[in-house]
Amino acid sequence: MIRLNLLPKNLRRRVEPGWWRLLALLFALVVLGVLGLVHYTAYTELSLAKAERDQLQAEVEALRPFIAELGRLQEERKALEALLAIREGLEKNAVPWSQYLAAFINQIPRAGGRLEVALRSVSARALSEEEAARLAQEGTYDGKRVRVEFALQGEALSREALVRFIRAFETSPRFGIEFQGASLDEGRGLYTFSARVGATGGESGAR
Q1: Based on the domain organization, do 86 and 28 belong to the same domain?
Q2: Which residue ranges does the record assign to the PilN biogenesis protein dimerization domain (predicted)?
Q3: Were both Cys, which of 54, 152, 158, 199 would link to 148 (CB 3.0–4.6 Å)?
Q4: Bridge-partner residues for 159, per DSSP?
Q5: What Cα–Cα distance (Å) separates residue 184 from each residue in 29, 114, 151?
Q6: 205 assigned to some structural domain
């Protein structure tokens, strides 16, 4: 049997080929596959991130006692350093008075084994670093940087004995002297004098 389509061309039903339906189906499948892959990738990365976060939190919790102990040790170290600084400051500013006095007495000249100068009063004081530097800059004690200063009042048997006393401290590398004045007590035949003696740092006396 022969079928004839007698409708006009503009009213006839167009018969499309079937391959475009296949392409549309494949495109939809590709889109769904891509969306599924993206979703799976995002889900996997999120799961890994959560697992890593949980692991880090577990490690932090495990290390928390050690962190607390480390903090305590650091606080103890700071406290110990503060105590050491205080001790060093005290040791730095400590003055070995017995050694200074022994060196000072040994520096007084003798004649025939006996002292020619009698000290009626002696006072001593330690100088600060700033004061010692200022006195040295001003040329006091021949520019020596002294640590201890003795203020003296005494009596000498003779003028020569007084001169020997002054020179003993002037020529010593450890001492310096600032002579303040002397007068003759004619009634007793003694020279009364006053002076200041500075001693530099060091533990052994030097004549």
Answers
A1: yes
A2: 97-200
A3: 199
A4: none
A5: 128, 21, 20
A6: no
